[in-house]
Amino acid sequence: MGMAVVKTFAGQGVSAPEVSVEIHLANGLPAFQLVGMAETSVKEARERVRSALINSGFEFPAKRITVNLAPADIPKFGGRFDLPIAVGILAASGYISDISLLNIAFVGELALNGEIKPVNGLIPVVMAAANEDIALVYPGDNDVEAALVSHATRFPAFDLLSVYEHLTGNKKLAKGQPFTSHSPGTSNTGWDDIIGQEQAKRALIIAASGAHNLLMVGPPGTGKSLLASRMLSLLPDMSEEEALEVAAIHSVKGEKLHAERFLTRHLRSPHHTSSAVALTGGGSNPVPGEISLAHNGILFLDELPEFGRKALDVLREPLETGDVHLSRASGSATYPANFQLVAAMNPSPTGDIDDNRLTPQQQLNYLNRLSGPLLDRIDIQVEVPRLPDYDLPERGNRPDDSLHATRERVIAARYKQEQRQGKPNGALHAGELADICLLDEADLRFLQAAAKQLNLSMRVFHRTLKVARTIADLEDEKAVSRAHIAEALGYRALDNLIKQLSTS
C-alpha cells in the first residue's frame, strides 16, 4: 500500500482555501475513485491524469486508487487539481519522496500529453501560498499574472516531467520572473477640447476628489459620455494593494491581465440590455460580474433608465456595503464591489424635455423607472444642458491642458482625506460626519432648514454633507462652511426635475 498527501488550493470567490489531496493506493481490482465534493470537471481528472502520466513515461499503477480532496465541505471545480493528483500518485508509487512534498503546493490542469495548461483564478492561489509561506508550482503560461504577487515563492512549470525532475532534485525549476510595477504614463486625454459645460466639469472634479457617485442629466449630444470618459484621467493611481485586489477579481473571471496597466483604474461600461446577473455576477460556480470588475474603479452606466428595474435595484446594496454576496446551490462567494458609479441619462424618452412631444406625466413615468432608494445613493446629480452657441473644440490636446492641473488638485484632496480619516469622503459613515465636517451651529441650522424645505431623506442629507466636505477639501478649508453646503445642495438636478414635473 502507498499513501501520499499533496497541498493545493481551491477557488472560493477571491479567496483560495487550502485543500489536501490525499492519495491511497491499495491492492484489488484496478479502479480510480475521486471523492471530496468534486464536480464533474474535477472527476474527469481521472482520464487526464492517467494519460498524462503514461505519456510522460511513468507506469500508471494497476491498483485501487482513492483520491480524497479534503476538506469535503468546500466545493471543488475546474481542472486545477490535475497536477497535485498526478504528483500524489507519483509519490504514492515511490517515484517521489514524501519529504520533497513538504512546504510546497501545486496547481494546474494537465493535457493528455503531460503539458500543464493555465487555470483561472491563479492570483488568489498565489496570495494564499505566500501568506502560508509555502512555494507554489503552477502553469508556466500563468507566470505573468502570478508575478503580480511579488513576495511569493513561485515555480512556473510547463509539463509534468519537469515537475518530477524538480522534486527529485535532478533539474530544479527556474523561479518565476520578478514583477516591476509600471507607473501609468501621463494620459493624452484632456478636456479643454470639451466645449463649455463648466458646471458638469466642476461636478466631475468634486466626484473624483471624494469618490462620490455621479449622475449627469441632459439631452443627447451635450457631452455626457465624453465627460464620463475623462473621469479616469482625474483619478489617482491605485496602490499595489488595491491593484492586487482588482487583479484577483479579473483572474477569477479569466480576463487577461496586463502588467503595464496593473496600477491603472478600470472603467466598465456594460450595455443597458445587461441583466442583473451580468452586473452582480453568478452562475453555478459564482463568478464576478461587472460591478466587481469595476472594483476600485468606475462603473459607467449610459442611458440609465433603459436598464431593467431589477438590474438597477441590485446596485443598491453594493453601493452601501462595497461588496456583493452570491449564493447558489453549489456554493457561495463574496466579491468586492467598491466601485464609483457614474451614470448618464436623457431627461425624456424623446431625448429633450423641451421638445413638447410628451406630456409631463409621460416624462415623469420615464424618470420614475429609477427608484427613489437608488437615486438617494447618488451623491451628485448635475444638469448637462444643450449649448446656446455652436462652436468647434480646441485643435488637439495641448500640453498645458487644464485637466492635468486639475488632476493634481484631485490627488491633493484625496491625500488630505486619506491622512484625516483613512478613506475618501464618499465612504464616510453618518456617525463620522460631525467630527470631520466641523460645522458651526448657524451653518448646521441652515442645512437642516434646506433639507426640510427640499424634503431630503436622511441618506441624502448625509451625502450632501459629504459632498460639502469634499468641496471644502478642494478649497483647502479646515471646516465646512455655508458656501460649501449651498453648492452641495445645488447638485440635485434630477430631484428638482421630478418635483417640477410632479407639480405641472
TrEMBL record:
GO molecular function, one term: peptidase activity
Domain named AAA+ ATPase: residues: 210-388
Claim: Calcium is one of the keywords in the record: no
Pfam families: ChlI, Mg_chelatase, Mg_chelatase_C
GO biological processes: proteolysis
PROSITE patterns in the record: SIGMA54_INTERACT_2 (PS00676)
Keyword field: ATP-binding, Hydrolase, Nucleotide-binding, Protease
Protein family per UniProt: Belongs to the Mg-chelatase subunits D/I family. ComM subfamily.
Protein name per Swiss-Prot or TrEMBL: ATP-dependent protease
UniProt organism field: Alteromonas gracilis
